Amino acid sequence: MTDILNIHDLTVSMTNGEQRFTVLQHVDLCIKRGEIRAIVGESGCGKSTLANSIIGFLPAGAAVESGSVRLADTELLSCTGEEMRMIRAERIGVVFQDPFSALDPVCTVRQLFRAILTVRRRYSRAEITEKASAALHGAGIKDPGTILTRYPHELSGGLRQRVLIAMALVNEPDLLIADEPTTALDVTIQKEILTLLRRLARERGLSVLFITHSLDVAAEIADTISVFYGGRIAEEGKISDIFAYPIHPYTQALLKTIPSLSFGKEERRLMPIEGELFSFLDQHAGCPFAPRCPYARDICYQTCPDTKAIGDHTYTCIMENQL
Ligand SMILES: Nc1ncnc2c1ncn2[C@@H]1O[C@H](COP(=O)(O)OP(=O)(O)O)[C@@H](O)[C@H]1O
Ligand code: SF4
Ligand SMILES: [Mg+2]
User: Fold this and answer.
1) How many CB atoms sit inside 10 A of residue 298's CB?
2) pTM of the full structure
3) Which among 289, 304, 316 is the best mutation to test ligand 2's pocket, defined by most ligand atoms within 8 Å of the CB?
4) Which CATH architecture has domain 3-91+173-316?
């Protein structure tokens, strides 16, 4: 399968006004055509910064220190602002956590579709209605004609997220980035949206980068997972391998936070991860998980371990795998 997204050695820094700190450290990530990849990690570990680096939405003061982000044959880090605007409209669909703030409140749904459909070419009113209605229908909306006349505030959270998904896909992008798209929704709607996203991705052979803080949400939608900690990839592999043979202590700890998940025949108790959340202001030269890791040794604080691979299952830890 060909690569749609290929990130190599991406390092991004930010500032809080007083101090510059590195948020993404030497990130390598590759997503193939049709692959659904989940990025999983606790809040504040750099997941949205990764998404924003891809779509050219880094906040003021952020700097790409090194690396490459390729969408098929296009190097996104060397695109101009205008080129990125086109790419966001046509080649990368984006769905954010909060569908309300992502939709311009003064525009009707039809006006929102018009704006995204006419980035590069002109469409008649009838063509816009036709394309928008088909996209809304595809996103599970039964009466697209009515929804097109509505403003975002007139729609429920679940409907707004469906509208956002329809807009993200209307120009048939190569890649969909969904940053915690179900976190603000209640559990039933969350399940519906996950099922919808997975169906749409499969029907279209779409590549998806799906960001979540929850391993069980990742398991519902993704083929592969990258477990993120402190701006680095801790472990990566097929969902089945990560759940059956987690090697990195952070992945093992994350798995224990999933309620009532059965591993083999044994039920595990819900266990919070010990220690303080990672802070980018407190970095040391070694493994970012060291202050919370039950297996940490002195060496873990001195150098960051190399990434090891067992087939397509990779992990960044000094531990030898026990497989
Ligand atoms: N606009 C910003 N200005 C300065 N620092 C930021 C900004 N946004 C995020 N950060 C820093 O980057 C870190 C990672 O944030 P983020 O990528 O949003 O994490 P996540 O999406 O995993 O919750 C945060 O802990 C914070 O220190
Ligand atoms: S490298 Fe050391 S501190 Fe980091 S996860 Fe592995 S054992 Fe723990
Ligand atoms: Mg985030």
Assistant:
1) 8
2) 0.94
3) 289
4) 3-Layer(aba) Sandwich (3.40)
